Amino acid sequence: MPSVRFRQIIRPQRLSDEVGTALEKRIRSGELGPGARLPSEAQLAGQFAVSRAVIREAIARLKADGLVDSRQGAGAFVATRLGAATFRMGAGPLAGPRSAADVFELRLIVEAAAAERAAVRHTPETLAAIGAALATMEAALAGHTEGNGGGAVADDAFHCAIAAASGNPLIRRFVEFVSQEFSGSREPTWNREGHSEGLARMSQGEHRRLFEAIAAGDPAAARQAAEQHLINAARRLGVVMPGLAGAHNEESN
Fold first, then answer.
1. 244 or 111: whose pLDDT is higher?
2. Pick from 17, 12, 27, 139: nearest CA to 78
3. Beta bridge partners of 37
4. Which residue of 32, 185, 204, 215 has the smallest Cβ count within 10 Å?
5. What is the pLDDT of residues 185-238, one digit of tens each?
6. Burial class (CB in 10 A: 0-12, 13-18, 19+), 159
7. 109 and 74 in contact (C-beta within 8 Å)?
8. Among residues 94, 103, 117, 142, which one has the least CA distance to residue 226?
């Protein structure tokens, strides 16, 4: 069955996001160097023709991203160490049209490596956790179940269990974070329409091959299976990662 392509929904940027992105470009280009004082709220509001409330929201975002520091009574300054803050999805450049492709590319890089390592580092316990998530998805596929008891939650758990089996706690924590941010995108695969269109069946076939490669202790096969699954998952959502459109992109029968 040919893959079903969904039209990607592009959310319009808020004014504060546009202002924040413009200021971020000035900071990262060096136009506003480390320690430089930003123009006042009133000056920035005039430059961008927006309200001061929009400027405050944009500055707050830059502060959250570790690009700007505030000093009591002195204003906002470019941070001396850029990006020393919590990593966040969906902010700045990630809010643009390529955000889905960027997220899938990030997942491809991290999760393919996690699968490769899981193939050689898994323990009986971590392999059992991957298998348990796989079994839950099998039950969801057989029963066409949705929601919290269905395949989407187990899909999250499957990928997180592989990351845990990599033996690297930082990989595990990062994949858990990305999975939480990404979990909503699994719903089209596991909801009623996803079942009827064969998306759940195709995805589960890829999950099985990935599990089998890890269980067999074959790191090369595990990496390839993870890459194929992520590229196909992106294509099922209508997302093409630049430069990867032809790599391992055949659909499963």
1. 111
2. 27
3. 77
4. 215
5. 788 889 888 889 999 999 999 999 999 999 999 999 999 999 999 999 999 888
6. buried
7. no
8. 117
Structure confidence by residue, pLDDT tens digits, 104-120: 898 999 999 999 999 99
Instruction: Give the model's pLDDT for residue 85.
Output: 57
Q: How far apart are CA 68 and CA 133, in angstroms?
A: 42
* pLDDT attached to residue 176: 86
**What residues does 75 pair with on adjacent strands?**
71
Rounded CA gap, 227 and 221, in Å?
A: 10
Strands 68-71 and 75-78 come out as antiparallel
DSSP 8-state class, residue 37: B
Name which of 103, 101, 122 is nearest 111 in CA terms.
Answer: 103
What tokens were used for 209?
A: 């091959």
Provide the token pair at 42: 């009133």
Whole-angstrom CA distances from 187 to 150, 172, 226, 239 are 10, 22, 19, 15
- Provide the 10 A C-beta neighbour count for residue 203: 23
DSSP at 7: P
**Nearest one of 170, 178, 162 to 118, comparing CA atoms:** 162
Distance of CA 197 to the CA centre of its chain: 24
Amino acid at 247: A
Closest CA to 202 of 181, 229, 162, 171: 229
Distance, CA of 227 to chain centre: 15
Q: For the chain, list the domains and their CATH numbers.
A: 1-95 (1.10.10.10), 98-236 (1.20.120.530)
What pLDDT, in 10s, does the model give residues 64-105? 888 899 888 889 999 887 766 556 665 444 444 457 888 889
